[in-house]
């Protein structure tokens, strides 16, 4: 899978590189080339960790229950929470 990266100058002359589609996936290098190589490695590690988590039977069961809760209307979306907050503010 291809991921977009953001490369920008950091402190001490290093280059910082982030992968916005993978929260927290960030690296750096002394040169742009080193930073890009480091983020490739970070992305591979990130994706390997996700694969391991997603293949865990406990995670699979949790996601299955979450899906059931969503379909049954037992969970609250962020949108619903924000709507309720707005309504409470109007009441006060």
Name some characteristics of this structure.
single chain, three-stranded antiparallel sheet
Rg computed from alpha carbons, rounded to a whole number of angstroms: 20 Å
**Counted beta strands:** 3
How many DSSP H or I helices?
Answer: 3
Tell me about the biggest sheet? 3 strands, antiparallel
Beta-strand level of the residues, as a percent range?
5-15%
Strand order, main sheet: write it out.
Answer: 1-2-3
Helix fraction bin: 55-70%
Mean of residue pLDDT values: 87
How would you classify the helix and strand content by structural class? alpha+beta
Based on the structure, what is the oligomeric state of the protein chains? single chain
Which shape, going by the Cα principal axes? flat
For the termini, the CA-CA separation is 49 Å
Secondary-structure element order, N to C: EEEHHH
The low-confidence runs, each spanning 5 or more residues with pLDDT under 50, are: none
List the helices and strands and how they pair.
Elements: E1 6-9, E2 15-18, E3 26-29, H1 32-55, H2 57-72, H3 78-91
Antiparallel strand pairs: 1-2, 2-3
């Amino acid at each position: 899978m291809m991921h977009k990266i953001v490369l920008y100058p950091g402190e001490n002359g290093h280059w910082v590189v982030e992968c916005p589609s993978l929260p927290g996936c960030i690296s750096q290098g002394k040169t742009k080339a080193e930073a890009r190589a480091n983020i490739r490695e970070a992305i591979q590690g990130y994706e390997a960790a996700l694969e391991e988590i997603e293949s865990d039977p406990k995670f699979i069961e949790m996601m299955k229950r979450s899906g059931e809760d969503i379909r049954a209307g037992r969970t609250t979306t962020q949108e619903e929470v924000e709507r309720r907050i707005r309504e409470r503010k109007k009441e006060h």
